[in-house]
Amino acid sequence: MGILSQLSIIYLLWTAMVFCQYEDYDFGDEYDDEPDHQHSYYFNPSPQAEVPRFPVPVECARECFCPPAFPLSMYCDHRKLKMIPNIPPHVQQLYLQNNDIEAVPAGPFTNVTILREINLSHNKIKFHMIDHGVFAKLSHLVQLHLQHNELEEFPFPLPSSLERLLLGFNKISQLSGNALEGLPNITMLDLCNNFLDDSVLKGKRFSVMKNLMQINLCNNKLETMPPDLPSSLMYLSLENNSISYIPENYFSRLPKIIALRMSHNNLQNIPYNTFNLPNLLELNLGHNKLKQLFYIPRSLQHLYIEDNDIEMINVTLMCPSIDPMNTKQLTYIRVDQNKLTTPMSTYAFFCFPHIRTIYYGEQNSNVNKSTQLRTPVFRRLLTPEEYDEAEDDHETHDQETEEDREEENNYFYPYFQ
Ligand SMILES: *[C@@H]1O[C@H](CO)[C@@H](O)[C@H](O)[C@H]1NC(C)=O
Ligand SMILES: *[C@@H]1O[C@H](CO)[C@@H](O)[C@H](O)[C@H]1NC(C)=O
Ligand SMILES: *[C@@H]1O[C@H](CO)[C@@H](O)[C@H](O)[C@H]1NC(C)=O
Ligand SMILES: *[C@@H]1O[C@H](CO)[C@@H](O)[C@H](O)[C@H]1NC(C)=O
Ligand SMILES: *[C@@H]1O[C@H](CO)[C@@H](O)[C@H](O)[C@H]1NC(C)=O
Ligand SMILES: *[C@@H]1O[C@H](CO)[C@@H](O)[C@H](O)[C@H]1NC(C)=O
Predict the structure, then answer these.
(1) Does residue 277 sit in the same domain as residue 146?
(2) Atom 14, ligand 1: which residue's CA is nearest?
(3) Residue 396: which domain range?
(4) Which of 167, 243, 284, 393 could disulfide-link to 304, CB 3.0 to 4.6 Å?
(5) 91, 116, 150 — which closes off a domain?
(6) Which ligand is located closest to the Cα atom of residue 370?
(7) Does residue 391 sit in the same domain as residue 276?
């Protein structure tokens, strides 16, 4: 076995490990429509669930269901509840999603001792209807789901035990100065689909969240990159904002970034070395206004630059030199809806020896409204099945390719809407 293949096996093992480890933190596939059908009895045993050794008298709120098989969970979801029922002391997981709850008063939480997870998503909760400190006193709380509510402000104070906080699909346009403090264990913060703009984030110290691995800020109103992110960050989602530039060296403080999603922004010029990051695997810059490419780091596997203003892909620019001992890992490029008139130079295959698919799709050239390169999908090392598939793509070139979906699925699992 050659050194190269040994290296690639080690690399594969390494990525597999990384992904197994952080699978939980992968971004969701926001290109999918949200499934509306919810599982009424969603069982989510906590890894540290302490199952009592003796059968406890199963106390359960009248409005809810406490399955004998999962004695630490109380299910009160999909019941048109207007109020939070009283929570018995032994409950660890509380499911209250999909109700008409407007307020979070302290009363029902009086006897709570070991509550680890609350799902309050899909309700009508407003910030000022949350009793001050009601969450903060839940000292074992690890996950809090508040997505799809009517919060106008980032809820705080929160308990320092919190690890995952989901606030997507609210109306958050305010973030109190100290709201982010006291969350040393938080790893995942979802703020997509809110009303955040630059002024809200200005001066906010995200870096106090020293263990933050993923922050989702997609579908907000940001015009600049979020300030002061912690160096622990691995997944950054900023799609569908109005960001027009990335400051020089912005990512030098974020060396652990694995995936960056910035599609649907107004990016035009990106400083050449912006993405020279040692761990970057996925870079999504589709639907921007890019004219020029940039340096491709060795680790990058998937590059999405569709729907930009690129007239020519200068491979020398992406790959100024070839190091046979350290080959670039790029396998997939999506470049449809640009202004290309010719395919990439064959130098690309020396520089990116692992490339499997280049999706050219349709191009918007200046002269003719829509032209198509002779090979809308380039595939390397085609098996007969893949060849047939590529042939099919000729006919359906404007649709997402099979591989495309496959590639995305490899990396991104639904995040918690
Ligand atoms: C708390 O526990 C006490 C004693 O068991 C009980 O009387 C009271 O109703 C409980 N309160 C709530 C909010 O569950
Ligand atoms: C929380 O509720 C949402 C529905 O709003 C559901 O999709 C999700 O799976 C639930 N998550 C957990 C961990 O209970
Ligand atoms: C934070 O996480 C660590 C490691 O899991 C744990 O030991 C510690 O108690 C947590 N801190 C809080 C405030 O819960
Ligand atoms: C972008 O966000 C707007 C609301 O801010 C929404 O209407 C639109 O559907 C979003 N587009 C995409 C592609 O997510
Ligand atoms: C491609 O980029 C290289 C490096 O910046 C440059 O020297 C070369 O002129 C470019 N080629 C074209 C055709 O623009
Ligand atoms: C535009 O399209 C016409 C016919 O469809 C073709 O003759 C012409 O060469 C095209 N021009 C360019 C620049 O591709």
Answers:
(1) no
(2) 86
(3) 244-401
(4) 284
(5) 150
(6) 6
(7) yes
Which residue's CA is the closest to the ligand 1 atom numbered 13?
108
What is the per-residue pLDDT for 392?
54
Residue of 109, 110, 134 to test ligand 1 pocket, by largest number of atoms within 8 Å of CB:
110
Q: Which two tokens stand for residue 33?
A: 């429509």
- Domain membership flag for residue 183: no
> Cα of 161 to ligand 3 centre, how many Å?
6
Residue 42 Cβ inside 6 Å of ligand 2? The answer reads yes
CB of 73 within 6 A of ligand 2: the answer is no
Encode burial over 105-139: b for 16+ CB neighbours within 10 A, e otherwise. Answer: eeebbeebebbbbbbbbbbebbbeebeeebbbebe
- The stretch 359-385 carries a mean pLDDT of 66
> Does 168 map to a domain?
no
- Residue 180 pLDDT > 50, yes or no? yes
pTM: 0.80
Residue 279 lies in a domain: yes
Say how far apart CA 310 and CA 337 lie, in whole Å: 9
Distance CA 82, CA 78 (A): 11
Same domain, 249 and 397: yes
Residue nearest to atom 14 of ligand 4 (CA): 240
Rounded Cα distance between 137 and 139, Å, is 6
Last residue of a domain, one of 131, 150, 169: 150
Residue whose tokens read 């993923």: 214
Let me know: does 160 contact 181? Beta carbons within 8 Å: no
- How buried is residue 235: exposed, middle or buried, by Cβ count under 10 Å (0-12/13-18/19+)? buried
- The CATH number assigned to the domain holding 111 equals 3.80.10.10
Residues 137 and 260 in one domain: no
In this structure, are 128 and 261 located in the same domain? no
Residues pairing with 379 in the sheet: 357
Cβ atoms of residues 397 and 376 within 8 Å: yes
**Domain membership flag for residue 229:** no
Q: What is the DSSP string of 138-184?
A: -TT--EEE--SS--SB------TT--EEE--SS---B--TTTTTT-T
Q: How many domains are there within the chain? A: 2
Q: Please report which ligand is nearest the Cα atom of 219.
A: 4
Residue nearest ligand 6's atom 5 by CA: 368
Cβ–Cβ under 8 Å, residues 352 and 328: yes
Name which residue sits closest to atom 10 of ligand 1, judged by CA: 111
Q: Tell me, what's the pLDDT at 34? A: 35
Instruction: Give the relative orientation of helices 384-395 and 402-411 as an angle to the nearest 10 degrees.
Output: 110
